[in-house]
Each structure stands twice: as C-alpha cells, then as structure tokens.
Write a structure and sequence with these properties.
The complex is a heterodimer. Chain A is mostly helical. Chain A contains nine helices and no strands. The termini of chain B are far apart. Classes of the chains: A mainly alpha, B alpha+beta. The interface between A and B is medium-sized, with 24 and 18 residues.
Chain lengths: 208, 132
C-alpha cells in the first residue's frame, strides 16, 4: 500500500491512486512544502524545463477526477477538507508547470535562484530598444486601428518567446546549468509575456 | 486606484519628452526596464563643460506612475551636477508623487535610469580621455 509520504505517481510514473494518497497524508499542504516534494514530483515528472505537456495534462486530469467533490460526498469532513486542499495545491502546481515562464521561474527557485523581477531593472540595452520599438508599433497600430499590424506583431512576439524558451531549455539543462543566465531569460520572457497580453487586449478591443 | 494630482499633472503634461543624440559625447543614455510590469524607460542627459546637466529628455512606456516618475526626474536633474543627481533616491520620487506601495517600483526604475545615464556618460568620457 501507499506509504505515508508516497506521491500519487511513483518514479516510473505508475499511478497509485490519489484517494489512497489523500488518506495516507495527514496534511496535503505540508506535502507541498516538504523539500523532497515539488510541483514536478507531484505529477511524477522529472524536474526539467522541457516537459511532456501532454503527459502533464493527462496526469492533472487524472488526479483532479479522483479528488472531485462528488467522490467525497460520503466522506468525513476531514477527508473532504483534505481532498479540497489537495485539489487546490494540484491546481497551483499545474498552473505553474503549464506556463513556460512560471515553470522556469519555479525551477530556478528550487535551486535557490531568485529572478528578481520586481527589483532588477538592468536589462541589455538592445533588448530594451527592441521593447520600445515594439511598444511604439502597438501604439501606432492601435491608433490606426490596424488589426493586421497587430497580428503580424503578435507573430513576432511569439517567435521571440519561443527563442527565449529555447535558450532556457539549454540554460536549465542538467549538463550546463547556467542559472544566472536563465534568470535573465526569465526576466526577458516577463517583458515578452506582457507585450503579448497588451497586443491581445488591443486586438480584442478593435474586434469588439 | 486613484493617482495623486502630481502624477496626473506629469502624466497629462509630461515634461521633457524626447530624444537627444545618443552619439553626442556629452550625452549619456540610460535604458532600464521593469520585468514585473513590462515598463521601459529611456533617460538621456546632456552635460556642459562644468559637468552640469543642461538638458534632459525621457521616453517611457508604462503606467502613469512610471511616466510621472521619469518626467519628474528630468525636471529635478536639470542644472545639477552628476554627483548631485546620484544622490536622488527613489524614496524622494515616491514621496513627491505620493506613490502607493504597489507603484514604488516605478520610482525605483527612475532612480536606476539616472544611474544608468550617468554611468553611460562616464564610460563615454573615460574612453575619450584615454583616446586623447
């Protein structure tokens, strides 16, 4: 049977049943904070930037269905609470791993590296120049109500994000962990993500 | 969230928006960005022979507080020496504009922009002196 600290997926990824897991855990939140457990191991995935997102989706759905409130209709209130807390933790873990920027930030945090996105303002000048140019393009396209220009910019931004994600895959690779460089790439991705949001927002307004 | 009157004033009538020639040896350019909110700020200073800032221009993409912070510092730094402007703290900017805690990073950005512009100018002038 499941040991007290076993996770729903073992190293080989075979499923042990979230229900048994919940019952075995005295407090699911303490499991999330346990240093031997993290968002990756919760889904039985290796802690790496390049993950199998289809497998992540599949395991997330599997776990979610097992902690569905319907299954705990007849359970004790303690078990109901545990299943709910567990579902919340799994949601957060899923959201973090699903988003490449959040996943990279989390991987760095696991290794004790903070990305300092609130305080580190020293970005490479050419990167910031490019940001300014892109912001100008958004502004001009918005004023001209030019949906095509926004769409073409969106493609550029997505290509930039992809290229930064490829950098991260290399920087966070097991053989050549360049954590400082990776933190820089996460900061860059933050800018690119924000631009993408702004473009999508502008496009929505124009389409409305 | 309500902006203070001073932020609104700078936001609606920003001072010293524009660009100086970045290749001019007496012009220092500072570019900084805040990853958390995506704001980008460019601050340029032009110094005379006495080492006094005689002109300053900025260009900022960001929220009202970021624009107001950069507009305010261009007013503050004109007529000051490089050493004097290095003493400007983000808390001075935040206090003057009555920035709420969530917008403090905008004032940090403006302080860092001053430092970056001064560093750029010093690097430029150091190079010229070595070359001379």
């Amino acid at each position: 049977m499941v040991a007290g600290r076993a996770l729903p997926f073992d190293d080989k990824g075979s499923h042990q049943g979230a229900f048994a897991y919940i019952i075995a855990c005295s407090n699911p939140l303490s499991i999330m904070q346990d240093s031997s457990t993290n968002h990756f191991s919760l889904f039985g995935l290796p802690a790496a930037f390049a993950i199998d997102t289809a497998l992540l989706d599949q395991r997330y759905r599997q776990l979610q269905s097992e902690v569905h409130p319907d299954k705990f209709a007849a359970a004790s209130s303690t078990e109901k609470l545990r299943s709910m807390q567990w579902a919340t933790s799994a949601n957060e873990a899923y959201r973090t791993l699903k988003n490449p920027t959040a996943r990279a930030r989390y991987l760095l945090e696991l290794q004790g590296v903070h990305t300092d996105e609130e305080s580190n303002t020293a970005m490479p000048t050419d990167f910031l120049m490019q940001q300014m140019e892109w912001r100008e393009t958004i502004e001009e396209a918005r004023d001209a109500k030019d949906l095509d220009a926004l769409d073409s910019l969106l493609k550029d931004i997505q290509a930039a994000a992809k290229s930064l994600q490829q950098d991260l895959e290399q920087q966070l690779g097991a053989e050549s962990a360049e954590l400082t460089a990776a933190a820089g790439s996460v900061r860059k991705l933050s800018f690119v993500d924000k631009l993408r949001e702004d473009i999508l927002q502008s496009m929505e307004k124009l389409e409305a | 969230m309500a902006y203070s009157d001073k932020v609104l004033d700078h936001y609606e009538n920003p001072r010293n928006v524009g660009t100086l020639d970045k290749n001019d040896p007496t012009v220092g350019t500072g570019m900084v960005g805040a990853p958390a909110c995506g704001d980008v700020m460019k601050l340029q200073i032009k110094v005379n022979e006495a080492g006094v800032i005689e002109d300053a221009k900025f260009k900022t993409y960001g929220c009202g507080s970021a624009i107001a912070s950069s507009s305010l510092v261009t007013e503050w730094i004109k007529g000051k020496t490089l050493d004097q402007v290095m003493e400007i703290k983000n808390s001075d900017i935040a206090e003057e504009l009555a920035l709420p805690p969530v917008k403090i990073h905008c004032s940090v950005l403006a302080e860092d922009a001053i430092r970056a512009a001064v560093a750029d100018l010093k690097a430029k002038q150091g190079n010229t002196q070595e070359a001379a």
